[in-house]
Design brief:
- Chain B: This is Cytochrome c oxidase accessory protein CcoG.
- The complex is a heterodimer of chains A (about 290) and B (about 500).
- Chain A is built from eleven helices and three strands, in the order E-E-E-H-H-H-H-H-H-H-H-H-H-H.
- With about 290 residues, chain A is mainly alpha-helical.
- In chain A, helix 6 crosses helix 11.
- Chain A is elongated.
- Chain B is about 40% helix and about 20% strand.
- Chain B is built from 16 helices and 15 strands.
- In chain B, strands 7, 8, 9, 11 and 13 form a five-stranded antiparallel β-sheet that branches.
- The longest helix of chain B is centred in the middle third of the chain and has 27 residues.
- Chain B starts with 19 loop residues before the first strand and ends with a strand.
- Classes of the chains: A mainly alpha (about 290), B alpha+beta (about 500).
Chain lengths: ~290, ~500
C-alpha cells in the first residue's frame, strides 16, 4: 500500500495510500501557499503573545510589550465621552429649570441624563419608573407631599426629607397611640373618619361626630381644615384617592398609632448640580409635575 | 476490505506523494471572439460604474448631500438618487440581497457559473491585470520564456517589471480610492486626499483595498476561485442537467486527430473528430484547465476557450462551437442522432423568476408607498398606569415621530381611544389644548413624552385600544400607531 506510484485508474490521479473497504482516497494536494499562510498565522499568534497580554500567571498575566489593557482603554473612552458631553452638560448646568423645560433639546438631554441617574440612585426606593411602593411616593401622579413644581422637586431632591441635612424638610406623622395621646377606640374612630374624607365606606356603628372632634383636636394642625393636607409640613392630603401607606382601616390604625417618618436622603453634594437639575426635570416630566 | 495501517509506515510524506503542491502559474493567451467582446463590454460597464458613480451629482436641496450614491455613516443615512433610506429601512437591502441571491441561482440554472466568468469582481480585476501584463510583457509564450529565463536581467526587463507593477498598483490604488468616495462627498474628499487632510480612516481603507486588489488580482488570481471561494462548492447544489455549461462536445471532437491526418481519413470516408489537439483552449484558459476533461471545479464558465476553438475551427474550415455552452443531455441526443433541445424555460427557472418578481414587486410597492412621516409609540412599562388624586387614570407613552422629508414640518397629534381623554405632551404648551402640535426639523426624529388622562368611571375596561394619528398640517400626510390605554 505504500507504493509510490499508486494511481487511481478511473481518474488518473495519485492516491494518498489510504484505503477503506476498497475505496482509495485520491490525493488532491493543497497549494503550498495555503500551508505557508497557515504557518504565518501561527507566527502571527506568537507575535500576539509577545505584544498583547496573553499568558495567565498565578496572580496576574503577561502584560505584553504594548502595555495594552481593556480596562485602561475603557477608561480612556469614558473620559472621551465625558469630554464630548461636557459642553452640553455645561449648558444644562447654566440654564434655569424653567428654561430647560422650554428648550426641546435641553429637555431631551435632561430627560435622558435624568433617567440614567434616576435608575442608579432613586430606583431602589421609588422603582425604576418612579412608580413608588408602600411608603415610597409614586412620582408619576399629581399628589405631592412637598410640592410638585420644578423648584419644589429640586428642593426635595437637594435636601431631602427628614434627612438630617440643615435645609431638609421637617415634620412627621406622630405616633398617637404609642405616645398615649389617643386611646385605641379613639384611633379606630378617627381612622374611619379619615376614610370618610375621601368617600371610603366606614365601619358600622362608627360615631362620625366623635371622629370629627378627635380629628379637629389632633390632626388639623398639620393636615389642615378638612384634611386637605399641608405641603409645608409634608402632611398628605387625606381627601384624595392617593395613599402613601394605604387607605384600609388596619393600615390607617397602624399609621395613627405608630406614626410615620419615611426618609428621603439629601442628594446635594452627592451629585453635581447639573445632574441634580436633570433629575428634577426628569421627575417633573414623568407626568405629575405642576 | 479494511487494510490496517501500521503507524510505523506513516513516517514520511514521500511514501504517499506530495500533500502540498507548488503553485503552477497560468499564462492565459490573448484571444478574440464573441465572449471576449462580451467580457470587455461588461468589464468597461462594471468598472465604469464603480469608479465614476461617486462623482455623479443629485440635487436634494440646500443642506442635503448632493451625491447621487452616498453611504453617510455618521448620520446613518443611505442616499441612492431619489431614495433616502434610514437605518430602520434596512429591510430594503434584505430584499435586494434576496433578489440578488435568487438572480444568481437563476443565472446558474441557465448558464452555470456565468457570474464567475463575467461579473465577479475577482474575475473582472484579474482580467484587467492580465490585460496590463500582456500589454507590457507580451503574450503567453513571451511571458513564459521571460519567467523561465535564468539570464541576468537587463534594463529592459527590469523596466518592464517595474512598469507592470506600477500600473497594477495604480489600478489597485484607484480601486481603494473609489471605495472611500462612496462614504463621503467625493469631490471634497478627493481634494482632502490630495492635500493630505482627509481623515486617517480614509487612507487606511485605501491602503487595505489597494493591497487586497493588488494581491488578489495580481498574484492570487485563479487560486481565489479554486481554493478560497465557496461559490464553486455551492454551485454544485444549484445546477442541474439542463444548465448550459461550457462543454467540450466530445461527440464531435473525438477522436482527436491532426489536421493532415484528418483530411486523409476524411478523404477515405472515415469518421474522425474535429478536435485537432491544438491546445488553444488550454492556452487561453484563465484557470489553466483543459475543458476537454469535462466539467471541472476550476472552470469559471468565461467562454474564452469557445472563442479560441472557434478561431481554429474557422481556420481549418470546420464548423465552429466544438466547445460551446451546452450540456450532456444534448451530447447524448446527438450521439443518438436526435436534435439537441435547449430548455431555458423549465420549472426551476420559472420558480426563480417568480421569486424575483414577487420579492422585487413587494420591495417596489413598499418603496413607492413608504411614508415620509412615521410614528412609533411605546407604552410606559413601569408604572403601566397611574391613578391621579381625583381618581382619574393616566397612561404615559413615548412617542417617536420621524420626519423623512427635507424640510421642517408642523405635526399635530390626535389621540383616539378612551372616553373624554385629555392629551398632554411634556414640554409643549400647545395653543390647541387637546391637539398638541410640534415642529420636527427636516430629516430628523423627535421623541416626546405623551400623557393621556381619562376619567376612570367612563373607561371601565381594563384595556382600551388607542390610536395615535399624527398629521402633517401642511401636506395632510398622516401616520398612525396603535397601543392600549390600561387601567391600574
Amino acid at each position: 500500500m505504500t507504493d509510490h506510484s499508486d494511481i487511481d485508474h478511473v481518474s488518473g490521479k495519485s492516491t494518498t495510500g489510504h484505503e477503506w473497504d476498497g475505496i482509495k482516497e485520491l490525493n488532491t494536494p493543497l497549494p503550498r501557499w495555503w500551508l505557508t499562510t497557515f504557518y504565518l498565522t501561527i507566527i502571527w499568534a506568537v507575535g500576539y503573545w509577545i505584544v498583547y497580554p496573553a499568558w495567565p500567571l498565578i496572580t496576574t498575566n503577561t502584560p505584553g510589550l504594548l502595555g495594552y489593557s481593556t480596562r485602561a482603554s475603557v477608561a480612556v473612552e469614558l473620559a472621551n465621552l465625558e469630554a464630548a458631553r461636557g459642553e452640553k452638560m455645561a449648558a444644562l448646568a447654566k440654564a434655569s429649570l424653567a428654561d430647560i423645560e422650554k428648550d426641546p433639546a435641553l429637555l431631551a438631554l435632561a430627560r435622558a441624563k435624568g433617567r440614567t441617574v434616576f435608575g442608579d440612585n432613586c430606583a431602589p426606593c421609588h422603582g425604576s419608573g418612579g412608580a413608588g411602593a408602600k411608603g415610597y411616593p409614586n412620582l408619576n401622579d399629581d399628589d405631592w407631599l412637598w410640592g410638585g413644581t420644578l423648584d419644589q422637586i429640586m428642593q426635595t431632591i437637594q435636601y431631602g426629607a427628614r434627612s438630617g441635612h440643615a435645609k431638609t424638610h421637617e415634620g412627621q406623622m406622630l405616633a398617637f397611640g404609642k405616645d398615649g395621646v389617643l386611646k385605641p377606640d379613639e384611633i379606630v374612630t378617627v381612622a374611619n373618619y379619615v376614610r370618610s374624607l375621601s368617600g371610603l365606606p366606614t365601619r358600622q356603628g362608627y360615631d362620625a361626630a366623635k371622629g370629627e372632634k378627635i380629628f379637629t383636636e389632633n390632626c388639623v394642625a398639620c393636615h389642615g381644615e378638612g384634611g386637605k393636607g399641608n405641603q409645608e409640613m409634608g402632611a398628605p392630603n387625606l381627601t384624595d384617592k392617593i395613599w402613601l401607606y394605604g387607605p384600609d382601616e388596619a393600615t390607617l390604625i397602624e399609621t395613627i398609632s405608630q406614626g410615620r417618618s419615611g426618609v428621603m436622603p439629601a442628594w446635594e453634594g452627592r451629585l453635581d448640580p447639573a445632574t441634580l437639575k436633570a433629575m428634577a426635570v426628569y421627575v417633573h416630566s414623568l407626568g405629575g409635575g405642576k | 476490505m479494511n487494510t490496517a495501517v501500521n503507524p510505523n509506515e506513516l513516517t514520511s510524506d514521500d511514501d504517499y506523494g506530495p500533500l502540498y503542491a507548488a503553485h503552477k502559474k497560468v499564462y492565459p493567451q490573448r484571444v478574440s471572439g464573441t465572449f471576449r467582446r462580451i467580457k470587455w463590454g461588461l468589464m468597461a460597464l462594471c468598472l465604469g460604474v464603480y469608479y465614476f458613480l461617486p462623482f455623479v451629482r443629485w440635487n436634494r436641496g440646500l443642506g442635503a448631500p448632493s451625491q447621487a450614491v452616498l453611504i453617510d455613516l455618521p448620520n446613518s443615512r443611505f442616499y441612492f438618487f431619489f431614495i433616502e433610506l434610514w437605518p430602520q429601512e434596512v429591510y430594503y437591502f434584505t430584499g435586494l440581497l434576496i433578489v440578488a441571491a435568487v438572480a444568481l441561482f437563476l443565472m446558474n440554472s441557465i448558464g452555470g457559473r456565468i457570474w464567475c466568468g463575467y461579473l465577479c469582481p475577482q474575475t473582472v480585476w484579474t482580467d484587467l491585470f492580465y490585460a496590463v501584463e500582456r500589454l507590457i510583457e507580451g503574450d503567453r509564450r513571451e511571458r513564459m520564456k521571460k519567467d523561465a529565463s535564468s539570464d541576468p536581467m537587463k534594463l529592459e526587463r527590469i523596466s518592464e517589471i517595474v512598469l507592470k507593477h506600477s500600473i497594477w498598483l495604480l489600478i489597485a490604488w484607484w480601486t481603494g480610492g473609489a471605495w472611500v468616495l462612496y462614504f463621503n462627498d467625493a469631490p471634497t474628499l478627493v481634494k482632502e486626499l490630495v492635500t493630505f487632510q482627509a481623515p486617517m480612516i480614509a487612507y487606511i481603507w485605501i491602503g487595505i483595498l489597494t493591497a487586497t486588489t493588488y494581491v488578489l488580482a495580481g498574484y492570487m488570481r485563479e487560486q481565489v476561485c479554486t481554493y478560497m471561494c465557496p461559490w464553486p462548492r455551492i454551485q454544485a447544489a444549484l445546477t442541474d442537467e439542463w444548465a448550459l455549461n461550457v462543454t467540450y462536445r466530445y461527440d464531435r471532437g473525438e477522436k482527436r486527430t491532426s489536421v493532415k491526418k484528418a483530411a486523409e481519413l476524411r478523404a477515405l470516408g472515415e469518421q474522425v473528430g474535429d478536435c485537432v489537439d491544438c491546445y488553444q483552449c488550454v492556452a487561453v484558459c484563465p484557470t489553466g484547465i483543459d475543458i476537454r476533461n469535462g466539467p471541472q471545479l476550476e472552470c469559471i464558465q468565461c467562454g474564452l476557450c469557445i472563442d479560441a476553438c472557434d478561431t481554429v475551427m474557422k481556420k481549418i474550415g470546420r464548423p465552429t462551437r466544438l466547445i460551446a455552452y451546452d450540456n450532456d443531455i444534448n451530447i447524448h441526443r446527438r450521439q443518438e442522432g436526435r436534435p439537441p433541445i435547449y430548455r431555458i424555460v423549465r420549472p426551476r427557472t420559472i420558480i426563480y423568476n417568480l421569486v424575483i418578481a414577487a420579492v422585487g414587486g413587494i420591495m417596489l410597492y413598499a418603496l413607492l408607498t413608504r411614508s415620509l412621516l412615521d410614528v412609533n409609540v411605546l407604552h410606559d412599562r413601569n408604572p403601566i398606569a397611574v391613578k391621579l388624586s381625583d381618581g382619574s387614570i393616566r397612561n404615559a407613552y413615548t412617542v417617536r415621530l420621524l420626519n423623512k422629508r427635507g424640510f421642517d414640518r408642523v405635526i399635530a397629534i390626535d389621540v383616539d381611544g378612551p372616553v373624554n381623554a385629555k392629551v398632554h405632551v411634556v414640554g409643549v404648551d400647545s395653543v390647541t389644548p387637546d391637539r398638541p402640535m410640534i415642529v420636527i426639523g427636516r430629516d430628523q426624529t423627535a421623541e416626546l413624552r405623551l400623557l393621556v388622562t381619562a376619567p376612570a368611571e367612563l373607561n371601565p375596561e381594563k384595556s382600551t385600544p388607542v390610536r395615535f394619528h399624527v398629521t402633517d398640517i401642511g401636506l395632510g400626510e398622516v401616520a398612525t400607531a396603535t397601543d392600549n390605554f390600561v387601567a391600574p
